[in-house]
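#onboarding

Welcome to the new folks! Below is a worked example of what a typical request in this channel looks like: someone posts a single protein sequence, and someone else replies with the predicted structure as tokens. Don't worry about understanding the tokens yet, we'll cover that in week two.

Example request:
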Amino acid sequence: MNDFFYKPFSYFKENRQAKHLFQQQNTPPIYNYHIRKTGGTSIHYAFLAHSGVADLDTFYQQIAHKKNQRVIANDKVFVGWNARLIQGGKYFYGFAHTPAYELQLPKHVFTFTCLRDPAQRVLSHYKMLCYFRDNQVPHPCMLTEGKWLGNSFDDFLKNIPKQHLMNQLYMFSKSYNIEEAEEKIRTCSTYFFTENINEGMADLSVRFNLELKLSYKKRYDYTLNINDEQLARLREILDEEYRLIERLDV
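Example response:
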């Protein structure tokens, strides 16, 4: 039997509400291609603040745990990770880690992404996982990613899958093609870098007449013991991503 008959009335009611609110809003739907460890969660919170909810940590978790990952608050629609709803384009703000080439977004969607120095991004990822391990934080990612740590940073570099190691390149090119990734990033409505994230968010604030205040979430108090030789090797491994960033940072 068609799934249509199993959807509760609240599902259709929420769809109508989302469509109505989208028709009333004075900004295009805003979508963030969220590359991990580039300040994405801080960016999300700047937009989620327009939900009018005081506790943004709880609100973020509400989006994460709701079945369709869409929450309506303060007459605004927020969508996280749900590719179908993201591609529907009826929201105030949406975000996901989904690679760009797996999404077909409507032309009216305003798209952006934030990039970062490749080595610093990987080190931030490693630091987060070490913090979770040593402080026994039961984060869902540890079921898979905790195994990458091994006993050293060298083990981590051997174990981490390429799509996570070079996530900035993979987000925009499944084949890790620099030219393809550059072309796709340049088709975004805008992009900026973690190193000048304040300026990037200020520009978005002006574009949409919104107050977008960064709160810098997910900072982990953990000291890494990475020597110069390991750092040099990391930069060598990430050469393709550095070439991509150099082409974009002009």
